[in-house]
Amino acid sequence: xxADLDDSHDTESGLMPSSGxxxxxxxxxxxxxxSSIICGLSCLGIMSLIYSVKARAMxxxxxxxxxxxxxxxxxEYSNKARNYxxxxxxxxxxxxxxxxxxxxxxxxxxxxxx
Length: 114
Fold this sequence. Notes:
This protein has 114 residues and is mostly helical. It contains three helices and two strands.
């Protein structure tokens, strides 16, 4: 997917040379993970940060894993980091909306009982 790739060619992203040619470097969504810890449910945000660190480590080749497996794992970790980060923020927004609505509903039901 084009959205999963980071198009810059600095040391953090882009295409890195490998023994057989070039392989893709998938985004690690580090900023999203940190934002989801601060602005979302922190437990899901921490999971996002863990997968973000794993994606960056796979992209840089810090593990002794075959080249094709490393690219596949980097993509998997990148997708999980993105999903957990977005899920943390969405869950927090839903909680902020649902709690006042439920309080209003309970208040309304209590007035009907009286």
